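explain this chain.
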Amino acid sequence: MSFAVRFEFHFRAARCGVAAAASLAFAPLAFAQAAASSEVLARGEYLTRAGDCVACHTTRGGQPFAGGLELPTPFGTLNTPNITSDRETGIGKWTADDFWNAIHNGRAPDGSAYYPAFPYTNYTRVTREDAEAIFAYLRSVPAVRKKNKPHGMGFPYNQRGLLNGWRALYFDAGIYQNAAAQSAEWNRGAYLVQGLGHCDACHTGRNILGATKKGAAFSGGVMPIQEWYAPSLTSNRESGLGQWDVEDIVALLHAGVSRRGAVYGPMAQVVHDSLQYLTESDVRAMAVYLKSLLPKDAAAEAPPMRTTEQQGKSLYEAGAKVYEKWCVDCHGASGSGMPPAYPPLANNQSIAMEFPANPVRLVMFGGYPPGTKKNPRPYGMPPFAQTLSNEEIAAVVTYIRQSWGNRAAAVSPADVDKYRNVPLE
């Protein structure tokens, strides 16, 4: 089976449950306001791609940026707004100051605070010039008359006034400031990763109030709905990038595949809708910055259910038989795979992470890397949820996690069972 396993999922809190969709064509520049130059509009379109705004503000099969996407959260359901140029239901009546106040300060034109699923906590780092280019581009998008749905937040989270307290604790507005000791390339990467890219929104664990944990940036976190695990980008026990070559990071972000593996799940959508459209130099700058992150331990997450030594041995032995039947043709008897089509399993850090959600979900539901300009015909992983039982999936994942240099705990069938009831979207 095509079991690809370098799980570099830069999950985004605001895109929980969004499956990779067909390519969405952005509005042509012919719709632009006469006052905005073609250069500004092209730059705004590029930055809108960098911020991946289309992912949250577009429903599957819907008009780009017309909103209406439901975002389930532990606090209730949020519905993304229409940000097309429609004057009644979109942002057609907004001023540049209104847009700046939203992206920089997280406040609506009426002064109310936005819920932080809108990642203004990151977008605040964007410069005013870049924000105005994005606004000019969004104003050029053809108007779509589509009323915004009210949020379905439970009490007390439906009391917007309480957000002022949250903001006092967890939000500091401020444009990104270059680090004098770093290169221009590093600073460009930091600006994109920390700001429009908002990578830490998913690669950082969150506290009970939904704020990213202080001092734990990029140390990994679990998606609350789908329960994919966004691995640590700092811990070399997981997916710390300090040991990666810059070229491999660039390939992963730009094409969705590299010698080290491929992206799947929500990260595939990030590459599909956003990163593949960035320039090589910008992606390289992001790679340089990410590679420089100081090593630290991965965030502590709820451990999987433990098995006894005898149970683990039985699972491993059964898993060897499942692997021989279903997996060996693509990944080889030695787990070396055939990268980039079939990523290696041997000595694969992502396989041996403490939290086994990602390999379990991929065996169960399969998936594809994104189709990109650099990888237009990706190889995929077929689903085995209907073919293999919970015990067989637990067995083969255990076998993979304990073979060819991988050293990780066995996976219990009970861990597998819970994912059959976790929605894919």
Remarks:
- Residues 1-34 have pLDDT under 50 and may be disordered.
- The chain has 16 helices and seven strands.
- The two ends are 24 Å apart (CA to CA).
- The first helix runs from residue 38 to 51.
